[in-house]
Each structure stands twice: as C-alpha cells, then as structure tokens.
Amino acid sequence: MLHFSIPKITMIFAVILASIFYSLPNMLPRDIVKQLPSWWQPMNLGLDLRGGSYLLLEVDTSAIEKEQLADLEEVTRSSLREAKIGYRTIRAADQGVYLTINNASDLDAARAAIAPNTVGMTMDVQAEDRVHILIPERLQRERQIAAVSQSLEIVRRRIDEFGTTEPSIQRQGADRIIVELPGVENPERVKTLLGQTAKMNFHMLEPNASGSDPRNLPAGTMLLQGAGDLAGQTFVVRRRVEVSGERLVDSQPSFQDGLPIVNFRFDTAGGRRFGQVTSANVGNQLAIVLDNKVISAPRLESAIVGGSGMIRGGFTVEKAQDLALLLRAGALPAPLVVLEERSVGPGLGADSIAAGATAAFVGGGLVIVFMIIAYHTFGLFAVFGQIFHMLTLFAFLSLVGGTLTLPGIAGVILSLGIAVDANVLIYERMREEFRSGRTLLNSLTSGFQNAFATIFDSNLTTFIAAAILYFLGTGPVRGFAVTLAVGIATSMFSAVMITRMQVWMWYRTGKRTTLPV
C-alpha cells in the first residue's frame, strides 16, 4: 500500500533539508566560503578542476645500494675493532665488502666476530687472510622495496605538514611516486622539501684535526663541507654516529636573541644517549650533520641533559620552519629525483569545470524533456527526485570532505542516468499493471514493490563494480568510483523514497482514477 507515516515523512524532509544545507556552500562565492566554519565547507576540487602542481618522483635506488655497502663496511670495521682483530684493508666493491686481516690465524675469529651483524649474507674465503662478504640480491631487493614504501609515507607526512588541502600521493611502478597538489601553483618550495633527504645525525668533530685532503685524514673520520653560516668551511668529523636523528620525536622553529633557531627533542633512549655523549665530550665540538653537510658545530660548554637542544645555523624564518618540518616528518631512506613536473593553471581548471557543468546541464536537460514527454506528471515527480538526488550527493561529498575531479563529474552524470532508469522501471511496471485491469492504487503499489528487486539488483552490481574500481584503481579512477558509488546510494533514496512520497501525496490529494503515464 502507498502509505507514509508521519515519522517517515519527517525523516525524508529532514534528509532533504540537510542536503540543501550542506550543499549550499558549493553555490556561494569564494570570499563568503572563507568565512564559514570548518565543518560547513564545500567539497574539495581535484587538480584537474582547481589547478595546481603534479610531480613524478623516483626513489634513487643506487643511493640505497651505496648506503647498504657503507653500512656493511662500518659494521665490519666496528666488529673487528671490538674483537681486537687487526686488519689491513676493508673495501666496499662488487655488492659486498673485501676484508684483508693482518694474521691468517685470526681468520676464523674474524668471521665469528662479523657473523652476528651480517645475518643472511654470505662470506666467501678467497685466501687465507682475505674474505669477501656478499650482500645477496634478495636482501638488496627487500631493502629497496622497504625504502620505497618508507619514502611514500614520509612524502605523505611532509605534504601533510606543509598544509596542502587534499593532496593525492600514490605509488607508480616499483620505485616511483606521483604527487598531485591542488591549489599549489608554484611547486618550488614543495620540491625543495621533498628533494631533501633530511637525514640528520650527531657526530663529534675530531680534535686538533684540520685539512682538506681526504687521503690524510685520521682513521675513522671523514671530511664534510659546512652549510648555512658554515658554508665554505670544511670539518673533520668522526664517522661514528653518536646519536641518530631517528631518535628525534619533535622539532619546532623558534627565536633566540631575535634570530630563528630550531628546537628539537629526543625520545627517552635518545635523550639518555645525548646526555652521555655531551657529558663525555665537554670542551669538544659537536657536529650536527644534515644530508652530509655540517649545519652547526657548537662547542660543548657543559653536559646537555633532559633530551632537548637547539640548532643555530643562520636560518631565515622560512628555512627554520622547513627544517623543523623535515625533522618532524623524518628522513628519507634515499634521495628523490623529480622526473616530471606539470602545473595546471586555475584558468584551465575553470574551463574543465565549465565543460563538466555544460555536459551536466545538457544531459540533465535532455533527461528532463524525455521524462516529462514520456510520463507527464510522474515525469515531473522524477525530475524533482533527481534534483534532490544531486543535492544529497553534493551534500555528502561536502560533509565528508570528498574531492570532485573531472572523472568524478562523469560519475555524477552516470549516477543521474542510473537514477532516471530506476524511475523508468517503476513507471513502466505501473503502466503494465494498469493496462491489465488493476485499480489505480494497486497499480501504483505494484509498480514500486515489483520493480524494487530489479532496481536493487542492477544497482548492487554497479556498486560492486565501483568498489572494485576504488580499491584497485588510482587517482582519477578512484574519483570516478567514489561519485558513482555515492550516486547509486542517493539515487536509490530519491527513486524509492522521494518519488514514492510525491506519488502518494498526488494520490491522496484528490479522487484519482487514471494513471497519468
């Protein structure tokens, strides 16, 4: 029976009013929208509609291999030093490290000392005093895969910290990352932030060591260039990392004596280690190394306990903010190379919106004309239902902070066709029932009841297809899938509830005996 209770009518009108309310910001001028509260904002526009920047990044896997070899070389050296085994050379080459010890009798002891730190690697004895420690291809590949995944997460953190609205960050292939930044017309600062590895560690400077020739350096040291206020200077830095930047848990820009600085804070273990290092090296210089450049080299006047400190490096305000952001987000495991960069101007985005709106209006207009000609009064009911269907769709996207893209507009138009198709099924069923001799009320009731199963099945299969597109697709495909899936849900509500309520009100407001379709 066509019957609507007061609670059901109240619920339908509440949904309609809420849809109008939450979709309203999409129709207001931008200067008014900026004054609205954060919970009442229009839906976000994607890169193709709003304009912005597109970056294709590649993880430098060769740097990962070099770092892996450098780590193996340092581990081998420290293991032999702890075991007090003398060696002549340790050289990284051929996907591994060549080790030559002083006494052939120490070969087995050397292998035993190295083994705990080289699990999964192979050690080939090439002579009675020489060993080749080889990194298997499997371990290299695993580290590369982990590095790409870690890079993807760190890029996402840096972009989120930067404050870009609705960025799209996704993986492409084995070692590439696509970054889309709607509304960012000048990507230079973003490129700078993403291009820095931001690997910061704390080393000690070698006391009383100077020079610029790497061949004359003391054992266990390296020659690094300065940056910022220290640009042009060279420093002899001990290779040993006293405290790793991975122990940082927070960093914030600040000021001291009117100059920008960066305050940092370690976790518990890092703070304890930092206190031990500074206590043991009072009077010596601490080197703060960022991406293999010394950005600060303060002399330790006293122990620094409490797990916090500051970095002074002649920063500008913007550079202090960027450094704090990079340290908070974490260091990249390998450098990122910009392979492709594109900028979409807001004018092109506006043209895309205009083209999409024109397509929607033309398609919607043709649907309206067809429905009115084919179904007369009931066609108008279907049109009103589709208007509320669109309002509900835009309200949902606005409420959840969804992003509308050009393919998303295609999904909206497709959902409009699906919604109209549901009305056509219902009306044709009514027409068949009425022509077979049933009463008007029975025909109306049968039209909604018997067509519902067909509508539900067809919409369910389309919804499953949209879900598959969302979970397996990327970028524009996901935008299409989201609007299509939400449009299916709202079209069901408009066809089954709103149109049905209009038909019920039409039937109850007069003595109806003829089906107007």
Summarize the SSE layout with pairings.
Blueprint: H1 6-23, H2 30-33, E1 44-45, H3 47-50, E2 52-59, H4 61-83, E3 87-93, E4 96-101, H5 107-114, E5 122-127, E6 130-134, H6 137-162, E7 168-172, E8 176-182, H7 188-195, E9 200-204, E10 221-226, E11 234-238, E12 243-244, E13 248-256, E14 259-266, H8 268-280, E15 286-290, E16 293-296, E17 308-311, H9 317-329, E18 336-344, H10 346-399, E19 403-404, H11 406-435, H12 440-472, H13 476-508
Parallel strand pairs: 1-19, 10-16
Antiparallel strand pairs: 2-8, 2-18, 3-4, 4-6, 5-6, 7-8, 9-12, 9-15, 10-11, 13-14, 14-17, 15-16
Question: Can you characterise this structure?
Answer:
The structure is a single chain. The chain has 517 residues and is α+β, with helices and mostly antiparallel strands. The protein is 52% helix and 20% strand. The protein folds into 3 domains: 6-51 and 346-508, Up-down Bundle (Multidrug efflux transporter AcrB transmembrane fold), CATH 1.20.1640; 61-140, Hypothetical Protein, Haloacid Dehalogenase-like Hydrolase, Chain: A, domain 2 (2-Layer Sandwich), CATH 3.30.1240; 196-342, Gyrase A, domain 2 (2-Layer Sandwich). The chain has helices at 6-23, 30-33, 47-50, 61-83, 107-114, 137-162, 188-195, 268-280, 317-329, 346-399, 406-435, 440-472, 476-508, and strands spanning 44-45, 52-59, 87-93, 96-101, 122-127, 130-134, 168-172, 176-182, 200-204, 221-226, 234-238, 243-244, 248-256, 259-266, 286-290, 293-296, 308-311, 336-344, 403-404. The chain is elongated. The mean pLDDT is 84.
